[in-house]
Amino acid sequence: MYIANEGKLIAFVDSTHAEAVLDAIKEDDFGKDASIIGEVVSDHPRQVIMQTRIGGTRIVDMLTGEPLPRIC
After folding, report:
1. Structure pTM?
2. List of E strands, 2-59
């Protein structure tokens, strides 16, 4: 998550418009695999909580230091 990743988009969209925005993105070939990956909730203010593949949760910390460069 902390390495440069060209061609990716993360958008925070009001939930009342999320499906319409997702449908519009999916109309483009580059967006065909787009999906909603989360939601903003009041349970954990100012934190990003990720659900792990095995069903646990963990806090996604802010990057400390410089991001790793992408070597082409």
Report:
1. 0.70
2. 49-51, 57-59
Tokens of residue 42, six digits: 């009041």
| Two structure tokens written together for 72 | 């082409």
Residue 6: pLDDT band by 50, 70, 90 thresholds?
A: confident
Annotate 43-59 with b (16+ C-beta within 10 A) or e (fewer): eeeeeeeeeeeeeeeee
Q: How many helices (DSSP H) and strands (DSSP E) are in the chain?
A: 1, 2
- 57 φ, ψ (degrees, to nearest 5): -130, 155
Q: What is the pLDDT of residues 40-72, one digit of tens each?
A: 999 989 899 999 999 999 999 888 877 777 676
Question: 36 Cβ partners below 8 Å, 6+ apart?
Answer: 18, 22
